[in-house]
Amino acid sequence: MNTMTTTTHPTHLDRLLDLVRPMGSLRMAVVHPCDAVSLAAALDAHAAGLIEPVLIGSRERLQELARQTGLSIGDLAIQDVADSHAAAARGVELALEGRVDALMKGSLHTDELMSAVVGSKLRAGRRMSHCFVMHTPAYPRPFIITDAAINIAPTLQDKVDIVRNAIDLAHAFGVARPRVAILAAVETVNPNMPATLDAAALCKMADRGQIEGGVLDGPLAFDNAVSAAAARIKGIVSDVAGAADILVVPNLESGNMLAKQLEFLGGAASAGIVLGARVPIVLTSRADPRESRIASCAVALVSARGGNRELRS
User: For the chain, which residues make up each domain, given as ranges?
Assistant: First the structure.
């Protein structure tokens, strides 16, 4: 009787966890994890060996939530505070004291957590920005989309910091000289399209050494950034076109739509963190799958440790 052997291929999350396993774990303040999804996310990341969570919220509420959902918080550290506002303030305080290495958003609103961060000394010299680390079957390597969650309508100077933050993250993943595509609707400079002017300025700033560590090109339309064939058809000669490691979007709306389209229609795996503060910040959404939440903690670990390891497709 013949038997059939089924081969299970490693997922993107499997490869990411293999990459970060030697890095140990992060002490992570989980701010107001007062619903089942956010509490489970912290416990899953803990079980994966990525974080040592410090749960910040009402002790009574967290214990009751654990009882109702069957989740076990065991002897995990709890910072007992009254409400979400106090939880955000306490998370920032723990980070400033060096008692945690990263923050993770629980069931409070993103604005509430980020307001506490922005109004504190956690804010570093650069503007904070969000990076999605994504991998889709249609593209041969993981890539970063920025900024799709923090900066609504970034100025040129904002985009300088957005690019620098993304380059730093790519470096942490072992990409020595990431290829940065500055996206617009077209690949030519048009005075009536501000995104193309910003793209041209960013590239010239890179030429003059004002942005270091990566190779920039733009404006590039999305197809030219990710498809060498599309770039050839348009006659674009570029080290970035068709091989981008980082996609810099014109504004939050375009970036958010692009990332979600890739995830929900393109089968992309995604993880996201905020950079530019003194510690990485994991922002989760109620719609994020379990794998995305765990992967976001892994990306935070790479960022905090300066991993310098290569994540291959």
Answer: 126-276
